[in-house]
Each structure stands twice: as structure tokens, then as C-alpha cells.
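lol ok so funny story. i was supposed to be doing the assay writeup but got distracted and ended up predicting the structure for this chain instead. priorities right. anyway since i did it might as well share w the group, maybe its usefull for someone
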Amino acid sequence: MQRPLTSVQKGLGMGVLLVLTSAALLVRTGAADVDRWRSLLAILCGAAAIGCFLGAFLSPPR
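and the output, tada:
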């Protein structure tokens, strides 16, 4: 049996999902400028951090 995920692992999973979905959207919109990529990378990192915090705080405590 696997043990259940901790809140940190759930948060990291949410962050990774957020980054993957926003990266897929970036590829579809065709962001080619370096400045645009740099700012979008900062947005992706922020989305990952927000996902980690949301997963850590919203998951029910045990």
C-alpha cells in the first residue's frame, strides 16, 4: 500500500500542473520574444509558488 500524499506533495503537484498548463498555452499562442518569455517565465514561477501554497493550505489537516 502506498501512503497518502502530504500537503506539501499535493501543493507541488498543483504547482507543476499550473506550470504545465500555462506552458502549453504559451506554446499555442506562439510567444517568441525574449522579453516576453522572460516575463512569462516569472509568471510561471509565481503560478507554481501559488499552487504550492494553495495545496499546502487548502488540503485538510490530519
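The chain has two helices and no strands. Helices lie at 7-29, 34-58.
back to the writeup now i swear
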